[in-house]
């Protein structure tokens, strides 16, 4: 049981296999990992797993999709009963034009001229006007950076925070997001930390946190955590 809903939205940009006549095929893959799963998939291992498809023959794209879904679903439940299957969608080359890149919508926090001195997560920077009328707003920053827990390599991301409740101090929120700069943690854990810190410090009535990270090694991971049921955002 976790105190949020959501999923991790993966995009695999380097997926290839052989058809039954040995001809290479290519596609993009969208993978949806439910947030309640007991395990996450480490990205380098997923890249190596996809590389194993490069010289493997499949009868169809559907067979590739089904294999990925079965293997990922088994991994995220660590071999136990699969309580919620991973979602897998393949996009073939003739539909690549239907995959646009769009900016996150919302008020840009990065416009603020703030002094930043903390580079490890500092939830005490978060403040909200609990004595004033509640608001509903969406805030965005492109300054999220953390480091891979395994390799120490930088992970660059944008984050969208939508909430209803006491108005969050925007300068403090931007300083808080910047404070992840030298922090070592996986994408999914960072987003859950942001969600929980805002929940505790600012007491929103509704909250969603969605981060879109730059692809690394042909993969991107975009976690969503929300307090309420909602449609998955465009990935």
What does this structure look like?
The structure is a single chain. The protein has helices spanning 43-51, 61-76, 170-178, 187-202; strands at residues 5-18, 24-34, 87-91, 107-108, 128-129, 135-147, 154-165, 167-168, 206-213, 219-226. Strand 1 (5-18) and strand 2 form a beta hairpin. The radius of gyration is 19 Å and the shape is elongated. With 235 residues, it is an alpha+beta fold. The strands form two sheets. The protein has an eight-stranded mixed sheet with strand order 3-2-1-10-9-7-6-4. A two-stranded antiparallel sheet has the order 5-8.
How do the SSEs run, as a string of H and E?
EEHHEEEEEEHHEE
The coarse silhouette is: elongated
Largest sheet: 8 strands, mixed
Which regions contain 5 or more consecutive residues with pLDDT less than 50?
none
Helix-and-strand structural type: alpha+beta
- Alpha carbon gap, first and last residue: 26 Å
The share of residues in extended strands comes to: 25-35%
Overall mean confidence score, pLDDT: 96
Strand segment tally = 10
- Strand order, biggest sheet? 3-2-1-10-9-7-6-4
Q: What does the radius of gyration come to? A: 19 Å
How much helix is in the residues?
A: 10-25%
């Amino acid at each position: 049981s976790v105190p949020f809903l959501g999923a991790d939205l993966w995009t695999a940009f380097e997926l290839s296999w052989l058809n039954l006549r040995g001809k290479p095929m290519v596609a993009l893959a969208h993978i949806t990992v439910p947030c309640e799963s007991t395990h996450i998939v480490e990205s380098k291992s997923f890249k190596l797993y996809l590389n194993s498809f490069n010289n493997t023959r499949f009868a169809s794209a559907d067979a590739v999709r089904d294999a990925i879904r079965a293997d990922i679903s088994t991994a995220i439940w660590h071999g136990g009963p699969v309580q919620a299957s991973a979602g897998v969608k393949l996009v073939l080359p003739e539909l690549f034009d239907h995959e646009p890149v769009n900016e996150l919508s919302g008020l840009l926090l990065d416009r603020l001229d703030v002094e930043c001195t903390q580079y490890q997560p500092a939830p005490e920077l978060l403040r909200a006007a609990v004595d004033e009328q509640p608001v509903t707003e969406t805030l965005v920053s492109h300054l999220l950076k953390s480091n891979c827990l395994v390799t120490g390599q930088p992970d660059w991301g944008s984050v969208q925070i939508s909430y209803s409740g006491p108005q969050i101090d925007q300068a403090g929120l931007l300083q808080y997001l910047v404070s992840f700069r030298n922090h070592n943690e996986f994408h999914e854990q960072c987003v859950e930390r942001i969600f929980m810190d805002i929940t505790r410090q600012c007491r929103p009535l509704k909250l969603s946190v969605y981060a879109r990270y730059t692809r690394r090694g042909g993969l991107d991971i975009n976690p969503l955590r929300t307090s309420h049921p909602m449609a998955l955002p465009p990935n």
